């Protein structure tokens, strides 16, 4: 009989006297052969208070849309536009990719570098309406009033972030080298109505070249914006290929305590390893003659406003609905706000 095992991952904050859990997005269900990972993407205590939101239900008109040419702009997909919300990327190499945001059906925005370079045809680099060496386009929000927020309040930007990327600034060749790892998607902030801007923040530092993503992105807003009545947000695509789609944007207060699973360019959010001594191949079915130790690891990012202490990874293993075993990693003493604990810190290698 083949039994399906479900591995449930959790991050523990042993230092909290009260603990609340909230998923910022739909929990991941990753199927790997006959195993399933069920991962709650974010754990936090407290709740977020939205201060400003944008779901693009009224189009892109209130935003400033600019690029290196009139053919190098962000596009709006709406319920009645052409193309509509049913169409995402139109380029040859990323055709059909769409966004899965909660309000996708009432509109979203996209920068389709793939289509603008090749017009949907294979191999015709640089023959589309805008040659992609590079594409540079900015999408700037209307003015946002945060004057009623205390200047000491920690804020964050939350938005649905979807697409696939390849080349950032500094890439060379035609087409540029696919080995380029420079970032191409950025967000920056202004507190004076767009006169000056903060240092651009890489929106997809955990998503390497050619890796598709479709997830909620949480970015800490630097100090100096709470209390201002002239805040603006700027999304910048600066590179070549493929698509970047954005929806469901909000500015919220940042909870004091929150940990979020995160991928890195070299490691997934969560992982399973067989034969921990030599990390042998991952197997979907292990017979009695092929038994190997199984261990787990993860990367966790402290997206809360406060430093966290006594952090650990907990694995609960179920077979046909019944709890078989609970395994905990060692405890990490402290993790500062904005820092990441990687798989070297949070793993069950010693308890295979």
Structural Rg: 22 Å
Written as H for each helix and E for each strand, in order along the chain, the element string is EEEEEEEEHEEEEEEEEEEEEEE
- Please state roughly what percent of the residues sit in beta strands, choosing from under 5%, 5-15%, 15-25%, 25-35%, 35-45% or over 45%: 35-45%
| Mean model confidence by pLDDT | 81
Which overall shape is indicated by the principal axes computed on the Cα atoms? globular
| Spatial separation of the terminal alpha carbons | 24 Å
Largest sheet: 10 strands, antiparallel
What fraction, in percent, of the residue positions are helical? Answer: under 10%
Helical stretch count? 1
**Number of extended strands:** 22
Structural class: mainly beta
Low-pLDDT stretches: 1-5, 13-35
Q: How would you describe this structure to a colleague?
A:
By secondary structure, the chain is mostly beta strands. It contains one helix and 22 strands. The strands form four sheets. Strands 5, 6, 7, 8, 9, 10, 11, 12, 13 and 14 form a ten-stranded antiparallel beta sheet that branches. Strands 1, 2, 3, 19, 20 and 21 form a six-stranded mixed beta sheet that branches. Strands 4-15-18-22 form a four-stranded antiparallel beta sheet, with no helix packed on it. It is globular and about 65 Å long. The model is unreliable at 1-5 and 13-35 (pLDDT under 50).
């Amino acid at each position: 009989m083949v039994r399906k095992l479900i591995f449930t991952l959790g991050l523990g904050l042993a230092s909290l006297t009260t603990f609340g859990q909230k998923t910022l997005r739909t929990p991941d269900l990753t199927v790997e052969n006959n195993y399933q990972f069920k991962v709650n993407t974010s754990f936090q205590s407290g709740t977020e208070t939205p201060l400003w939101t944008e779901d693009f239900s009224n189009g892109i008109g209130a935003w400033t849309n600019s690029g290196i040419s009139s053919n190098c702009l962000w596009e709006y997909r709406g319920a009645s536009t052409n193309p509509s919300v049913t169409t995402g990327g139109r380029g040859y190499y990323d055709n059909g990719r769409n966004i899965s945001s909660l309000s996708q059906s009432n509109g979203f925005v996209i920068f389709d570098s793939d289509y603008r370079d090749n017009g949907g045809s294979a191999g015709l680099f640089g023959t589309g309406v805008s040659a992609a060496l590079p594409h540079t386009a900015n999408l700037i929000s209307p003015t946002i009033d945060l004057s009623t927020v205390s200047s000491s309040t920690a804020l964050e930007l939350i938005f649905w972030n979807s697409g696939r990327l390849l080349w950032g600034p500094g890439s060379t060749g035609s087409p540029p080298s696919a080995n380029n790892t420079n970032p191409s998607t950025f967000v920056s902030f202004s507190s004076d109505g767009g006169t000056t801007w903060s240092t651009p923040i890489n929106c997809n530092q955990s998503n390497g070249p050619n890796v598709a993503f479709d997830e909620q992105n949480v970015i800490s807003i630097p100090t100096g914006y709470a209390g201002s009545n002239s805040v603006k947000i700027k999304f910048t695509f600066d590179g070549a290929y493929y698509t970047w789609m954005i929806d469901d944007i909000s500015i919220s207060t940042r909870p004091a305590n929150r940990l979020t699973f995160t991928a890195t360019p070299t490691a997934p959010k969560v992982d399973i390893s067989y034969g921990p001594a030599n990390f042998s191949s991952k197997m979907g079915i292990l017979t009695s003659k092929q038994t190997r130790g199984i261990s787990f690891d993860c990367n966790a990012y402290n997206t809360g406003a406060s430093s966290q202490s006594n952090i650990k990874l907990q694995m609960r293993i179920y077979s046909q609905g019944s709890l078989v075993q609970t395994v905990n990693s060692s405890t990490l003493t402290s993790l500062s706000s904005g820092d990441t604990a990687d798989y070297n810190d949070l793993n069950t290698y010693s308890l295979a």
